[in-house]
Amino acid sequence: MxxxxxxxxxxxxxxxxxxxxxxxxxxxxxxxxxxxxGGSSARNIGPFFNDQPHPDRSLYWWAYxxxxxxxxxxxxxxxxxxxxxxxxxxxxxxxxxxxxGYLAERGLGFSxxxxxxxxxxxxxxxPFGQDGPKASYADSxxxxxxxxxxxxxxxxxxxxxxxxxxxxxxxxxxxxxxxxMLAANHERTRSGLGQYIDVAAxxxxxxxTQAYILAAALGSTEARRMAGGIKFGPLDIQLVWPxxxxxxxxxxxxxxxxxxxxxxxxxxxxxxxxxxxxxRDKDWIQYGELLFNGTEPLSEFERIKEIARxxxxxxxxxxxxxLSVEHGLLITPVTTIDEVVDSPQLESRxxxxxxxxxxxxxxFRYPGAFVKFGATPIKYRMRPPTVGEHNRxxxxxxxxxxxxxxxxxxxxxxx
Length: 415
Prior knowledge:
Radius of gyration: 26 Å
Number of domains: 2
CATH superfamily of the largest domain: Crotonobetainyl-coa:carnitine coa-transferase, domain 1
Strand order of the largest sheet: 3-2-1-4-5-6
Order of helices and strands: EHEHEHEHEHHEHEEEEEHHHHHEHHEEHH
CATH architecture of the largest domain: 3-Layer(aba) Sandwich
CATH topology of the largest domain: Rossmann fold
């Protein structure tokens, strides 16, 4: 039996929070996606299957909404809110990503709904949290990535930063919200009570910067952007290196943790005739300090980097990967989309899963489960739902409405 199969989740999220419900649905929860009549605004985000814009053909929607059922409901209308309150009575979790106060102003905040269902765990995902001077600020992935730190490393050093290719600020927030909801559920088994969870995307992404976000506060050297790497004080640290057939990510750094790998790499280069013994035998553990204090000129470091580039250019990505495995180096291919899709490693783990779309008469390959459970494996039970696909199933079979009532609600634009 899937891990979360006994639980019901009401998913009121906009495009900000879709992934959270999908993660819970993948683990077996019954996730009911509550959309406005006509469908979520996320369904209007392309690209679209066969380049035909349609609410049920959005690949963005498909990416974040499998393992969910869909109903339509207008919570701007009092009748719609009353119906939603009935759904809350039998729900275990609620996720929403509206602007702070939006649901509370409509009588659907945590205090109102927990009075109906004291066991309800209610999670809000917003750009900057429910309070504070930025709570009502406009947002985008670009804004959040800038406000939380990582954008400082994105782009070229001689111009303003650029957005990340794939929006990801809210993906961090969704993952944090999912973990928090499971932690609250664990506590609920003791107290029998739900609680409110306030997730700020800015803080979620800030946590993901690891130590970088602490550099300024602690007076440490701040990392800055540089195409293909980062600038760290006077050092240009290259992280992406050319290969015969593309690029590899290679770490050539110093200190007790990483210097040992650089030392191995330089010994290998010397064996293959790419550098002399004097270069090989530099103090790679203390080398960063030697560069910072001027004992070793920066021009010498640039010479060593050129040696490394000459070496990587003379090998394919796969050859460099094999050398990394055999000699304990920090080199890995920068893969293309095609290489990910055709990855032998992912194929061996049956990662990609085929999901049928009967409404289109076709099947599509989806990215696989985010984790493997030995006793309760994740199975994709449902493709992403079409708009209001489960209205009758939930309104009539579960809430006891008859067909004439649901038809009247549809005529009034409530569902």
